[in-house]
Every structure is written in structure tokens, then in C-alpha cells.
Design brief:
Blueprint: H1 3-10, E1 16-23, E2 30-32, E3 41-50, E4 56-58, E5 62-64, E6 69-71, E7 81-89, H2 93-103, H3 106-123, E8 126-128, E9 134-136, H4 138-157, H5 163-177
Antiparallel strand pairs: 1-7, 2-6, 3-4, 3-7, 5-6, 8-9
Helix pairs in contact: 1-2, 1-3, 2-3, 3-4
């Protein structure tokens, strides 16, 4: 298992599979998928349209994976079905790579992911719509803070050094006492 997969496993952000089927209206060639910006990232996507024989045929559709946008080469005719099959996750491979580069290991990368989610949580704390619908995300932010503290504690408890520092110390030992 590579480091990115280990980070995804630790923060519970595996790549998930999804499929969407819709019908064109004759005016649009670009469609927003359920996944993509601002809350997830799309990867490994394919698009199909219903052919004249009633079966699905692949298209040369383009995907903007960060946005979750599929763009067909032309307008989708009215009442013509299309579908997209894709993988998605909360964090892109680039973001996981950044977390790893800054954090240094699985634990450090997990802390970076939590920090990112905490900043995102600050934008969506609490609101109420005119129709009386309420949304309160402050509990999620509190849980993220608790998880951050647990990971920081785990990081503090991790043994310092490793085999690399042992070999470095051995070089100093032999120089000092074998002279």
C-alpha cells in the first residue's frame, strides 16, 4: 500500500464509485455532476449516450474533475439519455500529496486533512432558510477539533527517531571511542 492509500485509509476518504443518468433538454452540452466542487473531487470518469439501437455508446466527453463537470462535444438532444460513471472522493490525489508533503507521514498528513476540514467548517457554521429549514454544522466542527487533539496526542506519544537516527548515532559512537 502506498503512502497516499495509507493516508486515505486513515482519514476514511477512499475513492467511491458513482453513476448518474439524465436526459438532455436539447439546449445544453455541459452538465454538473452530483460530485465535484465545492465538496468533492471526481476521477476516472466516462460518459455515454443512448445510441440509435437503444444501447449505451461511449462519447468523447470531457470532464473537469475538480468541478465535477461533464461537457459533451455537442448539445444533448431533448429526451436523449446520457450517463456518467466516475470515482469521487472528498480530497483529490493532489491534496493528499500536499498533506503528505507537509505532514511527512500518515499521521502528519491526517492532521493536515483535519486542518483543511476545520477551515472549511468555519465557512458553514449555522444558517436558517426563509422557509424555516435550519442547518447547524457546529457539532461537526467540534468533532473535528476533538479528532485533531487526539491525533496531536498520538503524534506526541510517537517514539522519537527511528532506525535512521540509530545509524547516525552509531557513526558518532565509533568516531569518539575508536580513536
Amino acid at each position: 500500500m502506498n503512502l497516499s492509500d495509507s493516508v486515505r485509509l486513515r482519514i476514511q476518504d477512499p475513492w467511491r464509485w458513482d453513476e448518474e443518468q439524465r436526459v438532455g433538454d436539447g439546449t445544453g452540452s455541459a452538465f454538473k455532476l452530483k460530485q465535484g466542487s465545492p465538496h468533492s473531487n471526481v476521477s476516472a470518469a466516462s460518459a455515454f449516450v443512448v445510441g440509435s439501437d437503444g444501447g449505451w455508446s461511449a462519447t468523447g466527453a470531457a470532464f473537469e474533475t475538480a468541478l465535477g463537470l461533464v461537457t459533451f462535444s455537442g448539445r444533448i438532444s431533448a429526451n436523449t439519455a446520457w450517463k456518467a460513471i466516475y470515482q469521487w472522493s472528498v480530497f483529490s490525489d493532489e491534496q493528499i500529496g500536499q498533506f503528505t508533503a507537509v505532514g511527512g507521514d500518515v499521521l502528519g498528513a491526517s492532521l493536515e486533512a483535519i486542518r483543511t476540514l476545520m477551515f472549511d467548517g468555519l465557512k458553514r457554521a449555522r444558517w436558517m432558510a426563509a422557509d424555516g429549514t435550519q442547518y447547524d454544522d457546529t457539532a461537526a466542527l467540534s468533532l473535528l477539533k476533538n479528532m485533531y487533539e487526539l491525533l496531536k496526542e498520538e503524534q506526541r506519544e510517537a517514539p522519537a527517531g527511528g532506525i535512521e537516527s540509530w545509524t547516525e548515532q552509531q557513526a558518532h559512537y565509533s568516531n569518539e571511542y575508536n580513536a
